[in-house]
Design brief:
ATP-binding; glycerate kinase, domain 1; nucleotide-binding; six-stranded mixed β-sheet; 426 residues
């Protein structure tokens, strides 16, 4: 029987989160998917928060010659001997990302059918490869990206727009590799593990259209410069589509996914003697609304023993969104937790941890936080009004004041968020 002391619960939730992160480490996942040595050259390219660690795993497990360039977020670099590592801005693109994208295109130009391009893709790659189409400036892309991030648009919607304003995403990088064979190793951080959504699909075909991108911009009332609007309306910004002959030699492998990390976390909970119920790996929606729904479920389990008997753990993954209306620092995991805590209103025997597996929640160098039955009372004793913090999108400030943040530093992987709710029963 699980020891349900407060310290034991905190420890178990953190161990589950750490297990989910550990299961998606590139050193664990990359080696088993490496291709055979080609007749020609092996060129390694990649983008994402885990791309540098993936590159290091390739180097450590590849005997023959190789070369390449990958781009990762500032602070997420891992030393490599033969693969160039470039750091760039995330979630808002910067000039370093543009340089990295240009270098990548140069590396894959002029290849032969005997060459293999090994593409290492993980979450975060969209912002890290900001090479605008001709007629679009980096400043315009940055402004559109900021507006999308604040709008409440889903990751799929944001990436649809990004693909159609890029000279490298939406399959364009794969087309530049032709006639070489392209092998994609993809660490998914998106719902349904859609290849075209991870890093906005630079090396896979894109089934979405300019019309879809326009619909996203209109849905969220995002204004764009007239030249950008014209490119979308005329179809001049169309991406690479399935069936294009330049994309015929693409092979893609999902090497890590949100579901795999959820299963690793669940194993730790079950080994501790607690029933774990996985509610899904693609939970989306406004973070505060998801928090309310999860709180209602947890309270029903806690008080009525339905649909699950306590003690148990409710486990979910996916990526919620935050529509920024206040002056706070945002963060979808902490906003989810603050909303959950407010809805629970001190309900006994419910403790929750939520965090991003890359170690960065929103713009903050903090993975997430933990909320307990006494969190609201402790905050009020410090003069903090929880609903006001939520209204101001300042959940990071709320949990920082309590000292209840979950801090991991860069984890060098990225398979989306983990939300872990312990329900002990009344």
């Amino acid at each position: 029987m699980f020891n349900a002391s407060a310290a034991a619960i905190d420890r178990l939730l953190r161990e589950m989160f750490d297990a989910g992160v550990a299961s998606a480490q590139p050193a664990v996942r990359v080696p088993r998917f490496l291709p055979p040595a080609p007749k020609g050259r092996l060129i390694v390219i990649g983008a994402g928060k885990a791309s540098a660690a993936m590159a290091r795993a390739v180097e450590d497990n590849w005997d023959g010659p190789l070369e390449g360039v990958v781009v990762t977020r500032y602070g997420h670099a891992v030393p490599c001997r033969r693969i160039e590592i470039i750091e760039a801005g995330h979630p808002v693109p910067d000039a370093n990302g543009q340089v990295a994208a240009q270098r990548m295109l140069q590396r894959v130009s002029g290849l032969s059918a005997d060459d293999v391009v090994l593409c290492l893709i993980s979450g975060g790659g969209s912002a890290l490869l900001p090479l605008p189409l001709n007629g679009v400036t980096l400043e315009q892309k940055q402004a559109i990206n900021r507006a999308l991030l604040a709008s409440g648009a889903s990751i799929s919607e944001m990436n649809c727009v990004r693909r159609h304003l890029s000279a490298i995403k939406g399959g364009r990088l794969a087309a530049a590799c032709h006639p070489a064979r392209v092998v994609n190793l993809i660490m998914s951080d998106v719902p349904a593990d859609s290849f075209s959504d991870v890093a906005s699909g630079p090396t896979v075909p894109d089934p979405s259209t300019c019309a879809d991108a326009l619909a996203v911009l209109r849905r969220y009332g995002i204004e764009v410069p007239a030249p950008v609007m014209d490119m979308l309306e005329t179809g001049r910004a169309e991406s690479m589509k399935p069936g294009d002959p330049r994309l015929a030699r693409i092979e893609s492998h999902l090497i890590a996914t949100p579901l795999l990390s959820l299963e690793a976390a669940a194993e730790v909970g079950r080994a501790a003697g607690v029933d774990v119920h996985v509610l899904g790996d693609a939970v989306e929606g406004e973070a505060r609304e998801v928090g309310k729904v999860m709180a209602a479920l947890a309270r029903h389990v806690n008080g009525r023993g339905q649909p699950f008997k306590p003690p148990c753990i409710l486990l979910s993954g996916g990526e919620t969104t935050v529509t920024v209306r206040g002056e706070g620092r945002g963060g979808r995991n902490v906003e989810f937790l603050l909303s959950l805590g407010i809805a629970l209103n001190g309900e006994p025997n419910i403790v929750a941890l939520a965090g991003d597996t890359d170690g960065v929640d929103g713009l903050e160098e903090i993975a997430g936080a933990i909320v307990r039955p006494d969190s609201l009372a402790r905050a009020r004793r410090q003069g903090i009004h929880p609903p006001a913090s939520l209204a101001d999108n300042d959940a990071h400030g709320f949990f920082e004041a309590l000292g209840d943040g979950v801090i991991t530093g860069p984890t060098l992987t990225n398979v989306n968020d983990l939300r872990i709710i312990f329900v002990g029963g009344r």
